[in-house]
């Protein structure tokens, strides 16, 4: 994919912001805005990789991969670049791993307006520090994604959500073998089980899980909580006021219900130094705070 026009649009001077479909925060207001290229360049089903523009809709990519029996770990909705830039995994993170692990190669436009390639189409092609990992979750403050190569995964034979009432989720959680997701709101456990139909049915029967339509609605605020503190959430917040991703530490709650943990000062200092190295004048997505 030719990124020349995109790089020229970003330029090398003046504040600039980037926007895909606007579903994950969108552009910085009152700043010159650019859009990344879109389109699927190729799907290598045998190698389980796909290359596409950062502006490609995640749902369009999912539909194309489904034709070859594969999928990505990117959360649905929005664009591929937006999903990677925000870096929030879906509720499948327990089974799929974090979003950052799916990115193999990125070509992005830096603050100087030049196209930079980070990573490679396979892990063994990469040497040195994996810059791709920095770009995921950086919200476009280090560079604007142009096109990417991401890993794919096979679509499971069976994928089914189950639920069961449970005041204590740990017996169910520890009894399940490699669940894709386990959620809990203080009164009910939801589990996403995938694999061979007989294995899924056996696991559900053993833990008294009953098939259901899907996970519960997730409140908008997303906060990290230590695993040791998860079972105390009902007493602190009230049953049904939160949804915790067991084994991951992410708690979904109403805004203001949980105070986000204060940023680690050492980590913040490292982030500031990285930002200065990648974007000395602070022109990329000015004012955006990564946290």
State the total count of DSSP E strands.
16
What's the CATH C level of the largest domain?
Answer: Alpha Beta
- Count of folded domains: 2
What is the molecular shape?
globular
> What structural class do you assign from the helix and strand content?
alpha+beta
Order of helices and strands: HEEEEHEHHEEHEEEHEEHEEHEEH
* Overall radius of gyration: 20 Å
Q: What key phrases describe this protein's structure?
A:
alpha+beta; Uridine Diphospho-n-acetylenolpyruvylglucosamine Reductase, domain 3; five-stranded antiparallel sheet; 25% strand; 16 strands; single chain; seven-stranded antiparallel sheet
Architecture overview:
- This protein is of the alpha+beta class and 291 residues long.
- It has 2 domains: 4-154, Uridine Diphospho-n-acetylenolpyruvylglucosamine Reductase, domain 3 (2-Layer Sandwich); 158-253, no CATH class.
- The protein contains 9 helices and 16 strands.
- Strands 13-10-12-11-15-16-14 form a 7-stranded antiparallel sheet. A 5-stranded antiparallel sheet has the order 3-4-8-6-7.
- The longest helix is centred in the last third of the chain and has 14 residues, at 265-278.
